[in-house]
Design goal:
The complex is a heterodimer of chains A (304) and B (391).
Chain A lengths: L1 E8 L4 H14 L3 E7 L8 E9 L14 E4 L4 H4 L11 E5 L14 E7 L1 H9 L5 H11 L5 H16 L1 H17 L1 E6 L23 E2 L24 E5 L9 H5 L5 E3 L5 E3 L9 H5 L5 E5 L7
Parallel strand pairs in A: 1-4, 4-5, 5-6
Antiparallel strand pairs in A: 1-3, 2-3, 6-7, 9-12, 10-11
Helix pairs in contact in A: 1-4, 1-5, 3-4, 3-6, 4-5, 4-6, 5-6
Chain B lengths: L1 E6 H11 L4 E4 L6 H12 L6 E4 L3 H13 L5 E4 L1 H14 L7 E6 L24 E4 L3 H16 L7 E6 L7 E6 L2 H7 L15 E2 L6 H33 L7 E4 L6 E5 L3 H14 L4 E6 L1 E3 L3 H7 L5 E6 L9 H9 L6 E6 L9 H15 L7 E3 L8
Parallel strand pairs in B: 2-3, 4-5, 5-7, 6-7, 11-12, 11-14, 14-15, 15-16
Antiparallel strand pairs in B: 1-8, 6-13, 10-12
Helix pairs in contact in B: 1-2, 1-5, 3-4, 5-7, 8-11, 9-10
The chains are: A alpha/beta (304), B alpha/beta (391).
Bound molecules: iron/sulfur cluster (2 copies).
One iron/sulfur cluster (SF4) binds next to helix 8 of chain A.
């Protein structure tokens, strides 16, 4: 059995990628499954998706801890965790990054065949959106020879075409094909030691009754359930709002629409952005009636 | 002390008033409506210092109750049947948030074929919502248990919501003489509500945030332990209440003429009254019959029942609701508790949809249990007074 783990951020299509890979495998006679794991957060939150491929029926439904293949859809995830953790000795990695495999550091102990591709640029050029899932599947076909490109393209055209229309299906297949061509295959050897975040994992009688949490309930750096206070949602973002104060008419819409309360209303009703918590979802830019907010690619700054 | 001739619903309202409930959200539904009407009258007449909040549905009623209790005030409400069903979602918010709301449930048959008459198929199915559940037999017990319910629910070892269930019409609308306890006595028994957590903008807390899998098991176990702790607290409250009022209910269940009994029945609600009569008749005839009035479905007194039934040869369960899998819910709980004890347990369904339960019916039940006590094979589950042969 092959086990594959996708790491992405909400909105990048990791779940669809896992499903499409499973679909492609089924098309060429394998048995396959795919399923996601994500929290209640929306865009920008780290997301995992898993796929299993085998010649026999797959019975297990547990998550993937010892992957044969890891697909990293967002380079910023390297800052958070060790996405290649648990990779098998002969395992492979595919990553969305402009660098060559030799230049990467996926963490101490990771010494693996690796393919890199600038999937974000390909997605933006081909699809006009930073949704990199299909481009990443093209890269998977280049690095990993279990499911060939043809089957992947067929699955993409069917699944994406069926859902978003024929043209979208073809464009997504095109993104995969271009990524296949552009993928650089090499070897990566990691050195960095990941400091695992200290997680607050209390035994049952340590949990405050009714899970009632005070801001000060935990030691710094420890993360409890849904505690945005310690959960720096700002590290999720791959785009950042740019506020053009001169255009702002102080309608307050962005302020009350931000799902993470990252927009801070000033005394004069102009806004400031707490980028430590802004996760870059773009809702504020969408809702602004006078285009006083632009979304810029990449994460930048702490306050503006 | 004053004795007043009032209905079961009114007795419940007196209980809420004497318990000094501070917020009462409500929505009318027969046969509970008199409770909230009486409470709004108490408030209107200046006898009760509470906010009555009419909501647009029972879902909202329970939402208001959750909010009020989270705000740190003693909260009471009442419902029945479809109203309880409409609250379903919010029941599961109140318990894990550990909010000691007290709710009277005037039991009424739920769903189609619609009826307004009593059956336990509204409250029994929500026994896994995390709420404690007590069932009462008469108006006095209805009043007393509202007061006790707050004491049990608000105990630091428990902090869980509780339903006080009373049979619709045959209790809710029956008038009986009820001893109304003095306010001072109630105040001694039931101190002011001291919440563990309060929503307060000056000291913000987050109650029950999204709880990912790595916390949920521990959270549920914590809840399970609180239900377990309620066993002790229920007994203590019963003792203390008895010391103040002279009325003792037996805690989790009441055993009636059980010490030397060879066979007995166990069941919930007003049925216990008629069963007492039948036990007395049978005793007069020299038969060793006994009765267990089951009071709590949660916590369910499993171990305690094993102890109490050691000398029985056969036990019958009375179920005022069906489970469509061969047995009723009381049976399922009881036989599970007695598994391996060697006692023959049979189930007896009656009173469905409010069908009147007569002494003859209960005698039939005892007759079957007595036969099984003698080793005769009788049906596992009998639908009493069913027209047509059981298959
Ligand atoms: S500030 Fe804008 S982009 Fe950032 S989280 Fe809030 S709504 Fe989303
Ligand atoms: S929505 Fe736009 S115009 Fe309104 S306050 Fe925000 S930035 Fe200003």
């Amino acid at each position: 059995m092959y086990e594959i783990r996708f790491h992405g951020r909400g909105g990048q299509g990791a779940v669809m990628a896992a499903q499409t890979l499973a679909d492609a495998a089924v098309r060429i006679g394998f048995q396959a499954q795919a399923f996601p794991y994500f929290g209640a957060e929306r865009r920008g939150a780290p997301v995992e998706a898993y796929a299993r491929i085998d010649t026999a029926k797959i019975r297990t439904k547990s998550q993937v801890y010892r992957p044969h293949l890891v697909v990293i859809m967002d380079a910023s995830l390297l800052e958070l965790e060790g996405p290649a953790s648990g990779l098998r000795p002969d395992g492979k990695v595919v990553m969305n990054v402009a660098q060559r495999p030799e230049e990467l550091d996926l963490g101490a102990g990771v010494d693996a065949e690796c393919g890199t591709v600038d999937a974000s640029s390909i997605a933006l050029e081909t699809l006009k959106m930073p949704v990199v899932n299909t481009a990443m599947l093209g890269a998977v076909a280049k690095v990993w020879n279990v499911v060939p490109l043809d089957a992947i393209l067929e699955a993409i055209e069917d699944r994406f075409g069926g859902k978003l229309g024929r043209r979208a299906g073809m464009l997504n297949a095109e993104a995969a094909r271009r990524a296949y061509e552009a993928t650089v295959v090499g070897r990566t050897q990691g050195k960095r030691e990941y400091v695992q975040p200290k997680r607050w994992l209390p035994v049952w009688d340590e949990i405050p009754i009714g899970v009632s949490l005070r801001k000060t309930a935990h030691v710094e750096e420890e993360v409890g359930p849904a505690t945005t206070y310690q959960h720096h949602t700002g590290r999720w973002k791959w785009s950042t709002p740019l506020y053009k104060k001169d255009k702002c008419i102080r309608c307050l819409r962005c302020w009350w629409s931000c799902p993470d309360a990252a927009i801070v209303r000033q005394d004069d009703d102009y806004m400031r952005w707490d980028l430590e918590y802004c996760k870059g979802c773009g809702i504020c830019a969408d809702i602004c009636p006078v285009e006083a907010i632009d979304m810029l690619q990449g994460a930048r700054g702490t306050w503006q | 002390m004053a004795v007043k001739t009032i209905t079961g619903d009114q007795a419940v309202a007196y209980g809420a008033m004497l318990a000094r409930a501070e917020v009462v959200p409500g929505f009318p539904i027969t046969p509970q409506t008199v409770i909230i009407e009486q409470i709004s009258e108490f408030i209107n007449d200046g006898l009760m210092d509470a906010d009555f909040i009419p909501a647009e549905s029972e879902h909202s009623v329970m939402s208001v109750a959750v909010g009020a209790s989270a705000g740190g005030v003693r909260t009471f409400t009442a419902t029945s049947s479809q109203g309880l069903a409409l609250m379903y979602e919010m029941l599961f918010a109140a318990a894990p948030t550990r909010l000691p709301v007290v709710m009277a449930v005037a039991n009424r048959s739920l769903g189609a074929a619609s009826g307004i008459w009593t059956e336990h198929n509204d409250s029994v199915p929500v026994r896994e919502s995390g709420w404690l559940q007590v069932y009462v037999e008469d108006n006095q017990e209805a009043l007393d248990m509202i007061i006790q319910a707050f004491r049990i629910a608000e105990d630091r070892r428990v902090m869980l919501p509780i339903m006080v269930c009373l049979d619709g019409f045959i209790l809710s609308h029956v008038v009986e003489g009820v001893d109304i306890p003095e306010q001072a006595v109630v105040d001694r028994f039931l101190p002011r509500f001291a919440p563990v957590n309060v929503l307060d903008p000056r000291d913000p807390i987050m109650m029950n945030p999204v709880t990912p899998p790595e916390f949920a098991t521990e959270l549920r176990y914590q809840q399970d332990r609180a239900v377990e702790a309620a066993r002790t607290v229920i007994g203590e409250a019963d003792e203390e209440f008895a010391a103040l009022t002279g009325r003792r209910y037996g805690g989790l269940f009441e055993a009636y003429r059980l010490e030397d009994a060879e066979f007995a029945l166990i069941g919930l609600g007003t049925w216990a009254g008629i069963a007492r009569e039948v036990v007395d008749q049978l005793r007069a005839e020299g038969k060793k019959a006994g009765l267990i009035k089951l009071r709590y479905m949660r916590p369910f007194p499993g171990q305690e029942l094993r102890q109490a039934t050691l000398n029985l040869k056969a036990l019958g369960t009375f179920d005022r609701s069906a489970a469509f899998n061969g047995y009723g819910p009381v049976f399922t709980e009881v036989r599970n508790a007695l598994y391996g004890s060697g006692i023959t347990v049979t189930d007896h369904l009656a009173g469905i949809g409010g069908r009147d339960i007569t002494a003859e019916m209960v005698r039939d039940m005892y007759g079957l249990v007595e036969r099984s006590a003698r080793g005769e094979k009788v049906r596992d589950c009998t639908w009493h007074a069913l027209r047509g042969e059981m298959e």
